[in-house]
């Protein structure tokens, strides 16, 4: 394979070589289901859906695991604040996330394990860590000792003497840098029986246990948001190594969706929920927007940039709808080169739009066969990005009626122009052409008659 991925752990572009030939194993840290998802939450779903698509397009069988954190301090606090059971609060918001993923065409994972369904595995994993000398129990809590792991801090670049785990000192904690794997039961909170007393899992142990259960002690790729590098992913690695597992060989992190340079979060009051944004653009257009930037870059949100992206998608959509049911073929070498370079979607999309321009030129010159050939390539490229307008996913939800209606209206105007030209009424003919041009519609006269297309932005 020619695919190279930026591995956060080594901070280098590395050739991707799967552990098992013909197979790729991927774990994505999924949602903590405490609230309605905003577009920052679902960016990772879109970004790594493209990764999955590309791995499959390269001929690999992909096992893709995306977990659900359905027991957590924040979930318990939110549920209590609203006077609802923690499990009902979690289930309600899990459905909201699943709805958002479906709306954006993010494919279901191979399996979507819930934390509460894997407590037995977590208890066994913790016991292995304790037996290996990397953890200890105290007052019903169980802690991990980062000082026992030689390369702790490598992923995030944290220095052991300066780090803060972001949790309280904890009853019985020997060192403030130790982090919690198991939390002793508190009145009114959910708990499970363990050798150390009743309690519930810490956040980090959930993913270490679920990833290795489904993908094995060593797997190919671990994905997640940039904000999860520390402490979550750093502590996942520590726990896995403490249990004797090799864990992930490549670490991929997506950038945030930002507003005015700030990470999108409820505390900043700049949350844009998926349902609200879908009142501005169609689901496929939102997916196109969220996937258009390089996955490692920050995506600065504005309604203007969202609408510009939607307009870019519609230009591709209009070209393909004009061709009809053009068969999907394969991508161009330039597209493949872009995605092989650490999933370079911006360069890949530039190739898509170059192809659309070439296809519209072919249509304008009356070369329908060439336009169809290009259209098949455009479909293949857009399919990898998860936004093929003619796919079953988006054919049902795309604004095909609007495209068809536009075609009817434009052709009616072109007929009026043709009559005016035949009658040498040049003023009317020019007026029709200028009005269409002002509306962003380009008209080219060909030997077989006038052809129209939506103008590409400069």
Note down, in words, how this protein is organized.
The protein is an alpha/beta fold and 458 residues long. It contains 15 helices and 15 strands. Helix 4 packs across helix 6, helix 5 (203-215) packs across helix 6 (229-243) and helix 9 crosses helix 11 (345-364).
* Sheet with the most strands: spatial strand order: 4-3-9-10
User: Level of helix content?
Assistant: 40-55%
Instruction: State the helix count.
Output: 15
The helix/strand order is: EEEHEHHHEEEEHEHEEEHHEHHHHHHHEE
Major pleated sheet: 4 strands, parallel
- Unreliable residue stretches: none
Protein structure class: alpha/beta
Q: Any key phrases for this structure?
A:
single chain, 15 helices, 4-stranded parallel beta sheet, alpha/beta, 458 residues, 15 strands, 4-stranded antiparallel beta sheet, 16% strand
Layout of helices and strands:
Layout: E1 4-7, E2 12-15, E3 23-28, H1 39-57, E4 61-66, H2 73-81, H3 86-103, H4 119-131, E5 135-138, E6 141-144, E7 179-184, E8 199-201, H5 203-215, E9 218-225, H6 229-243, E10 247-254, E11 257-259, E12 262-263, H7 274-277, H8 283-292, E13 299-300, H9 303-323, H10 333-340, H11 345-364, H12 368-384, H13 392-395, H14 400-422, H15 426-438, E14 441-446, E15 449-454
Parallel strand pairs: 3-4, 3-9, 9-10, 11-13
Antiparallel strand pairs: 1-2, 5-6, 6-7, 7-8, 11-12, 14-15
Helix pairs in contact: 2-3, 4-5, 4-6, 5-6, 8-9, 9-11, 9-12, 10-11, 11-12, 14-15
